[in-house]
Structure formats: structure tokens, C-alpha cells
Amino acid sequence: MEMKQSTITNSKEAHVTDAANELVNESVKLAHELYQDGLKKLDGVAHEAQAYSDELLETVRKHPLKSILIAGGVGLLLSALLRK
For the purposes of burial, counting CB atoms within 10 Å of the CB of 21, is it exposed (0-12), middle (13-18) or buried (19 or more)? Predict the structure, then answer.
């Protein structure tokens, strides 16, 4: 009787261990997929930021005086807002 109980206990422990290992493997796989998705999104954002930066730089080159005046106006506005 004791041998049968021990076999049942070992069988249950093996089942729990297998289930835990499967859960860990699935979690690792999901974490890797999320990491890869994050890298892809970050790469896309980096490309968009670079394109925006290039466009802004070209605008400043075409209209330098206008760009300086706008930057000065924004600076004055921010300083007035931050003083209050």
C-alpha cells in the first residue's frame, strides 16, 4: 500500500514538474517575442524621428532667419510661463 501511495505521489510530482517546466518555457518564449516586437517598434520610431529631424534641418536651412525668430519667440514664451 505504501509503495502504491509513493508511486502516486511521484507521478503527481512529475506531472506538476512537467507543467511548471512547460509554463516556464512558454513564458520565456512570450518574453522573447515581446522583446523582439519592442525592438521592431523602437526601430520604427527611430526612423520616424530621423526623418522628422532631417525635415526640420532642411526647413531651418531654407529659412534661417524665420527659424531663429521662431526659436526666440518660443524661448520668450517658455521663460514667461516658467517664471509664474
Answer: exposed
